[in-house]
Design brief:
This protein is of the alpha/beta class. 33% of the residues lie in helices and 23% in strands.
């Protein structure tokens, strides 16, 4: 993978910090319901500027894997606002520097679209989760096959990956989730508000590792 220029990493961090308020307001109720069961030692992959920190209990042992160093200052500010102690690590989702069977929950929101290898990332999540641990996710995904939107997603994907820091608008994330080895998988498709049509198709749910 070609390294993203530092100026773009800085710009992308700024846009994430200042441009997502409407979307976060639109999905607040969904996130509150999703994260209600999160507790203990939590690993969040690609936490960005920290929009999810407000949902965690204050006694959460939170660790984030964030490869963009320009996100880190925003993350720290978000943690200070909600009174949460956090640990930020560099790294990538495909190769987590985390021990086997060591975390109660893994969280990912709007991240799986941009990982280089989705299957490898999900297998890493399975590896680090404790038996019975849960993976909480909210992701934008491909529109249904043969729809006009899916055709647009397919057509614009190469350019979108450049502009969106590696984002794949036409990724069928749910199909990979279904086959990587989680014991239980519960998710729903929905249409998100306050985002471009290209990323309106989204999924939200929980995947559970075998006890």
């Amino acid at each position: 993978m070609q390294r993203t220029p530092s100026w773009y990493q800085r710009f992308f961090a700024w846009t994430m910090a200042h441009g997502n308020a409407d979307y976060e307001a639109a999905v607040r109720d969904r996130k509150q319901k999703l994260f209600a069961g999160v507790h203990g030692k939590v690993l969040e992959i690609g936490p960005g500027t920290g929009p999810n920190l407000v949902y965690y209990p204050r006694d959460t042992h939170w660790m984030g894997i964030e490869p963009n160093p320009y996100m880190h200052s925003y993350l720290k500010q978000a943690a200070e606002r909600v009174g949460l102690d956090i640990e930020i690590r560099n790294g990538t989702a495909e190769r987590l520097e985390v021990e086997d069977n060591s975390v109660d929950a893994v969280v990912s929101t709007l991240v799986l679209c941009s990982v280089d290898n989705l299957e490898a990332t999900l297998k890493e999540i399975l590896r680090v989760l404790k038996p019975g641990g849960r993976f909480y996710f909210l992701e934008h995904v491909a529109a249904p096959q043969d729809t006009r939107l899916r055709k647009i997603q397919n057509w614009i994907a190469p350019l979108w990956q450049v502009l969106g820091d590696g984002c794949h608008p036409n990724r069928e994330t749910w199909s990979v989730l279904e086959k990587v080895g989680f014991e239980k998988l519960d998710y729903d498709h929905f249409q998100a508000d306050a985002v471009p049509a290209l990323v309106k198709p989204q999924i939200i749910g929980v995947a559970t590792k075998k006890s």
